[in-house]
Amino acid sequence: LGWKFYDADDYHSPENKKKMAEGIPLNDEDRFPWLCALHDVLRREDSSRQDAILACSALKKMYRRVLVSGASAMESDQPEQLGENTALKILFVHLDGPIDIIARRLEKRRGHFMPPELLRSQFDTLEPPHAPEKFITVSLEKSLPEIVLEIECAIFQG
Fold it and tell me: CA–CA separation, 133 vs 115, rounded Å?
């Protein structure tokens, strides 16, 4: 697509990386400053009229709201109070698949601070997106070219 790509893992604080490396799952308090920093990255790209892709485990609805609206999302439980003019237009791609497939992929990853043992905690935390969130769900059981094509089609059709 020629868009800028950001890996959210690059924005974790040293404390978050250390915690995960020790096998301790992050909590909301650990994640909120990270998510706000990611919102700022996306806001900067949007202000420059640049499209971007962010790879991020936005596991909870609230996390996705912070990515869309920044810190103001934490102050209100009512999306309509967030202000449509400040919200970023984001299409969330929920990569969905069985834990065993994801575990096998994680085990092949080298030099990453998050050990595969934390995968279960991510599944336990996961709140899959649902309406009215703007999202698509793509199966990880498809081939990589099929996954990419499905995402591209959703971007250009929506």
Answer: 30
Distance of CA 24 to the CA centre of its chain: 19
Q: pLDDT class for 34, splitting at 50, 70, 90? A: very high
List the one residue out of 25, 31, 90, 24 whose CA is nearest residue 60: 31
* Domains of the chain, earliest start first: 4-157 (3.40.50.300)
Name every residue whose Cβ is closer than 8 Å to that of residue 27 and which is 6 or more positions away in sequence.
none
Residue with tokens 């990611």: 38
Which tokens sit at 95? 């990569």
Question: Model confidence over 11-30: pLDDT tens digits?
Answer: 999 999 999 888 898 999 99
What is this structure's pTM?
A: 0.85
CA atoms within 13 A on the CB side of 49: 0
